[in-house]
Amino acid sequence: MSDSPDTPTPTQTGSTASIERLHVDGLTTSVRCPRKYELAHEHDLESTSDETAAEDRVDLLGGALCAALRTGDTDPDRLLDAATTALEERWNDHDERFHSREQRRHVRRVLDATLEAYVDRIGVEHAKGIDRLTSETNGEVIGPTLPLSSRVSLPESEAGDASVTLESTVDYLTADGRSVVGVRFVPTLAPLGRLRYRPEWEGDIEAQFHDHFDPEADVFEPGFVGSLFETAAVVDGLRTRCQQLGLENRTCRYVQIPVADRSQTTVNWVQESVDASLEVHDLTDRYIDHHTYGMTHEHRNRAVDDRLAAAVARIVDRKFEPETRWESISSASCPECGYSVCCQEYLASEVRFDG
Ligand code: SF4
Fold this sequence. Notes:
The structure is a single chain. The chain has helices spanning 24-32, 34-42, 52-70, 76-92, 101-134, 201-212, 222-245, 284-287, 290-296, 302-316, 326-332, 344-354; strands spanning 21-23, 142-153, 163-176, 179-186, 251-258, 265-268, 273-276, 281-282. By secondary structure, it is of the alpha/beta class. Strands 1, 2, 3, 4, 5 and 8 form a six-stranded mixed β-sheet that branches. Strands 6-7 form a two-stranded antiparallel sheet. Strand 3 (163-176) and strand 4 (179-186) form a beta hairpin. The longest helix has 34 residues, at 101-134. Iron/sulfur cluster is lined by residues 33, 35-36, 39, 322, 329, 333-334, 337, 339-340, 343, 345-346. Residues 1-23 are annotated as: Disordered. This is PD-(D/E)XK endonuclease-like domain-containing protein.
């Protein structure tokens, strides 16, 4: 990938137009199943799976926390007050259907506990980093959903496009020493797989990444590979953003913060209280390989970047057949796919099964 000064606007690819811009969410979907990418992003069909509740809560919390960070306050009590006030405003307009008032109250307690955990665990540190960053640049560093973009040079593509703009988003930027850190609120860290438990690229992460693409290895880890693609897109997009902000001498890092992970909450039903904890996860060291870093002095990974470019080229060439991946996709991706009712491969496999 190479840097670009482009400022992205979200675009939806059409079914016949050439693809010039692609969001990394679409790319990670194509890793789970290329047909799913086609149905969701080429044909713009709506998924029947119910993934929206967790996403909505991430939006609620992300919006409230970004509003609090925008106050510039680094005092923990005032930061939490600002976040709670911002959440209250959003909560009043939140139209999620609950089974009962008690359930609505419980969800609100979980959200409040998550705000508290964020401020305790990382919020003050990040607020101070934002303060340092804004003293050095006039550019926007707080979202939510700050757009990033970079250029991906394609390997030989049938469509002939030499490069595609790859879009991604973070919720805010903060400073950590000489690094600019892009932070994104996510529902959970579950998609990361081994990236969650290993500290660096060399070793198990590198091995699993190569195995995923090895037809002999019988390994299919789309969440893990998609997360590495996302990290590559965000880190490259951050480099572009740093150039725009006059911060080009910084290294870039990518951090995810899960804010809708039920395993991180403890409920006391008698006292009607909720405790939450937060795991702040830096993906950068899991992504960079030290060989490429030694050559470029930038946070890059040649193997990931090359596979990412090849995956983008397949989308540009509209190669959406599961092909040799069908066995893995049918067991790992189909069971929770919201497009099965309109998917030719899935319907054909059901007919074979019934017959
Ligand atoms: S049902 Fe299976 S094959 Fe069809 S789009 Fe979904 S994941 Fe892909």
